[in-house]
Amino acid sequence: MKVIDILNQSEKTLFSFELLPPLKGSKGDKLYDTIEQLLEFDPKYINLTTHRDEYEFRTREDGLIEKRIVRKRPGTVAIAASIQYKYGIPVVPHILCGGFSRSETEHVLIDLNFLGIENVLALRGDGLKQEAVFTPEMNGNRNANELVDQIVGLKKGRYLDADLKNTAPLDFCIGVAGYPEKHFEAPNLNNDLQQLKKKVDAGAEYIVTQMFFENRKYFDFVKQCREMGINVPIIPGLKPIAVQNQLTVLPKLFHIDLPVDLANELSKCKNNDDAKAVGTEWAIFQAKDLIKHGVPSLHVYTYGITDNVKAIMKAVL
Ligand SMILES: Cc1cc2nc3c(=O)[nH]c(=O)nc-3n(C[C@H](O)[C@H](O)[C@H](O)COP(=O)(O)OP(=O)(O)OC[C@H]3O[C@@H](n4cnc5c(N)ncnc54)[C@H](O)[C@@H]3O)c2cc1C
Predict the structure, then answer these.
(1) Residue 317 C-alpha to ligand 1 middle, in angstroms?
(2) 36 φ/ψ angles, rounded to the nearest 5 degrees
(3) Gyration radius (Cα) of the chain, Å
């Protein structure tokens, strides 16, 4: 079932959990265990991240430097299908521009279609650690807007090989990302919203936001989107803080602010258990308020941690 249909058919706030594929070399059991712990909260769909190839330099025994390609969490396509069939819950795999040529993207989408996956979240991805700016793959999409265009083309049966005749359309519901505190590369929020509108005009059917810790930022963002003519559902992203160093790591990695009260409380914590308790309480406070305001769904960034997510769900359901 498509996410947009799930959202349109519901009058109350739904929930989705964002999960990560297991690290290369580990078994999938922990991921299934995580899902099983969350089933009681009736997630209407599950998001599954994608992790592109990174590269690193290693010194070989002969002293020469070797460049190695590393993908720490492969398997999004297979795991998405596995979850969908095992639990009967629609899965939304994330699809990236970064690290993929348009031809590789087309093959991923063909695979997903064969596997019965009907939803994708279309993202650009971040630049590599070694890159000052995001660099697309050769013949790859340069931004999420172009990726949405490609997926919409396939919905119309438009494959890269223009010689193909009588092509079968690949029908996906497409979500995209939005940033209440603006994307860090955008010169200002207004410019970022113009780029967001391009994604929606190209065919994105809903938006999932980056994490934020002050609901006012989400409400202002939605208001500005509506003023700009972006009328699709905007799903808030909720990140329960679970370890103390996220006080500094989250702003650095995700270019978001932590409000003074939350930052002060986290600073006082003596250990990760204390920080998790503060983060859980804060997320409950945010979630209750978002639900009260009738948000269509809550996208919970779980990072594979369930005890805090369960506590939040129990408090808000
Ligand atoms: C809900 C969610 C899930 C995510 N999941 C993943 C994941 O699974 N894997 C992963 O690697 N990353 C993931 N990310 C992170 C995301 O890939 C990064 O934030 C990335 O830097 C931007 O992706 P985007 O799709 O928003 O990019 P875009 O929409 O392409 O925007 C990127 C920047 O370019 C600008 N821009 C866009 N289009 C144009 C244009 N036509 N001309 C000029 N400027 C333009 C925008 O204003 C913005 O500053 C996720 C983010 C969110 C919010």
Answers:
(1) 31
(2) -65, -30
(3) 20
Q: Which of 86, 92, 87 is nearest to 3 (CA)?
A: 92
Instruction: Give the mean model confidence (pLDDT) for residues 73-82.
Output: 96
pTM above 0.90, yes or no: yes
Ligand 1 centroid vs 137 CA: distance in angstroms?
Answer: 15
Neighbours of 140 (CB within 10 A): 20
* C-alpha span between 244 and 263 (Å, rounded): 10
208 CB near ligand 1 (under 6 Å): yes
Residue type, position 73, single letter: R
Percent of the chain at pLDDT above 90? 93
Query: Which three-class secondary structure state does DSSP give residue 297?
Result: strand
Q: Is 145 in the pocket of ligand 1 (CB under 6 A)?
A: yes
- Structure-token match 């990760």, residue found: 272
47 neighbors 121 (Cβ within 8 angstroms): yes
Tokens coding 111: 């695979």
Distance from C-alpha of 22 to C-alpha of 79, rounded to nearest angstrom? 9
- pLDDT over 90 at 68, yes or no: no
Number of the ligand 1 atom closest to the C-alpha atom of 94:
8
Q: What is the structure's pLDDT at 55? A: 86
User: CA torsion angle for 205, 46, 147, 195 (degrees, to 10)?
Assistant: 60
Residue nearest to atom 3 of ligand 1 (CA): 177
* Residue-wise pLDDT tens digits, 9-51: 999 999 999 999 999 999 889 999 999 999 999 999 999 999 9
Angle subtended at Cα 16 by Cα 259 and Cα 13, rounded to the nearest 5 degrees = 80
Task: Write down the pLDDT at residue 56.
Answer: 85
Q: Whose CA is nearest to atom 5 of ligand 1?
A: 49
d(CA 210, CA 233): 14
Q: Is 82 exposed, middle or buried (0-12, 13-18, 19+ CB in 10 A)?
A: middle
Q: Is the pLDDT of residue 305 over 90?
A: no
Q: Which atom of ligand 1 is nearest to the CA of 186?
A: 49
